[in-house]
Structure formats: structure tokens, C-alpha cells
Amino acid sequence: MSLRLPDQALLVKLFYQNDNSAIVALRKFRTLKGMRKGSLTAINLRLMVTKFEETGSLNVRSGRERKPISAEAIEKVGLQVEENKVSNVQAGTRVRLVAEVLDLPRSTVQKIMRNILRYYPYKLQLVQELLAHDFETRHLFSLQFLARLEVDPEWPWNILWTDEAHFYLDGSVNTHNCRIWESDNPHSTLQVPLHSPKVTVWCGFSASFILGPYFSRN
């Protein structure tokens, strides 16, 4: 039920005059207005009173009118994203930077990228760099492996594969994902050593057994 502001004010007034009873307030309101019944319930009235107590107003803000996103803006954002990927794949694409370059609201760029272009944020995965000579070395190893396999089919079962990993001991914080929520900027800093102490874990394994793990502190 849609009520005019004077009727809403009368309902709130009756609510307080009748010991905060929504049921009594509704009954008296309908009597004053000559209504036998109405769609407004006691729960709706309590919500109305709660809103009034929280905001001091009964008026519902209509908000700003939303402007439709133009096809031109969508095309510009799409081209800018592709340009960023070609120019520097490591830098990625930031919504804020695209908005600044195109002079568009950040919220508009966000909607275009997520809701229209269906782009999603992905984290760049770091892998070992391969130089030009690495490809030839790996290719030769593959050929030697296959040739050896033809002579001795059980040879791969005797290979000892090894790997190692480093674990830092100073409680390093990844500031990329770290946020400090404060009302004012605390300008917090964290001093870290140039060479952080770490533990290296080495392990070897074959088809039939595991060697290790072995730990060494650096």
C-alpha cells in the first residue's frame, strides 16, 4: 500500500501515542480514514517507524537517474583493455587506469568489463623463464629419453627426480593482498631484512621410493 507522507506521519504519531503498539495504531488510523481494512500490516508499520528513527525522515529517496551505457563507451573500454594486454601483459588491466584514460566513471568501466564484456580478474602466474637455447636442450633430452626407452623399457623407473622449495622464517607479509582498515591512514611500515632467513626443503623420488625430505637452513 502506497501512503502519502501526511498519512505516514499520522501513523507514526498514532504509534507513539498508543504505547508503541502497531496494531492499535493501525486500528485507529483506519477508523479516522473510514477504512474497514487495508494492506498495511503491523510489521510494515514497525519497519516504517524504524526507518523514521534511523533517518529522521519518512521520505523515500528516489536516487539519481541511471543513464544507459552507450555503445561507444563499451567499444572504447574493449579497445583499451586489448591495448593494455598487448602493450604490457605483466601490468595487466586495472579498472581505475582504464577509467582515467577514457575519462569515464570507474563504476561505469566496472559494469562494462564485468557485466557486458564478461571480463574477470585473473592473477598472473609466474613460471620459470625459458631462453632460446632451453628449447633445444629440452628437445634433445626428449629424443634421448625415447631412444633409451626403446633399449631399456624399465629405465624410467630408476630415475631419481628431485625438487626443492624455500620457506621464509621472518613472517613476511604479502602487502599486495594486505589491507589495514582504519579511519585515518596509520602510515604503517614494516622493516624486513635484505636477506630473509629461510629453510630449504629438498626431496627426491622415483617410481618405487621417496628420498627425504631433507631440511637445510640458510
Helix-strand sequence: HHHHHHHEEE
Biggest sheet, in brief? 3 strands, antiparallel
Secondary structure: helix percent: 40-55%
List low-confidence stretches: none
Total DSSP E strands: 3
Mean residue pLDDT: 80
This entry's quaternary arrangement is single chain
Overall shape: elongated
Describe this protein's structure.
- This is DUF4817 domain-containing protein.
- One of its GO terms (molecular function) is nucleic acid binding.
- This protein has about 220 residues and is α+β, with helices and mostly antiparallel strands.
- About 45% of the residues lie in helices and about 10% in strands.
- It has helices at about 5-15, 20-35, 40-55, 70-85, 95-100, 105-115, 130-150; strands at about 160-170, 200-205, 210-215.
- A three-stranded antiparallel sheet has the order 1-2-3, with no helix packed on it.
- Strand 2 (about 200-205) and strand 3 (about 210-215) form a beta hairpin.
- It is elongated and about 100 Å long.
- The mean pLDDT is about 80.
